[in-house]
Design a protein that fits this description.
2 strands; single chain; mainly alpha; 71 residues
């Protein structure tokens, strides 16, 4: 996917599991304290994740809240 942020345009490839791990580590929603610029990029990646794969994103957010997925 392509993203725009901080005056940069780039491409990357990542699987859903790795992306969810990155978002857990790099967004302050999870209690971590990422560097500001890293958090901005992670938030943009999260927006794309939610747009492109809404079902997987919903399961990810449910799991983040500590609720079991699939029950």
């Amino acid at each position: 996917r392509q993203w725009r942020g901080l005056g940069l345009v780039g491409r990357m490839s990542i699987n859903a599991r790795s992306l969810m791990n990155l978002l857990n580590l790099r967004t302050s929603d999870t209690g971590s304290h990422p560097q500001y610029e890293i958090e901005l990029v992670a938030k943009q990646m999260e927006e794309l994740f939610a747009q492109q794969t809404p079902v997987i994103y919903s399961a990810f957010k449910t799991q983040q809240m500590g609720w079991p997925v699939g029950e």
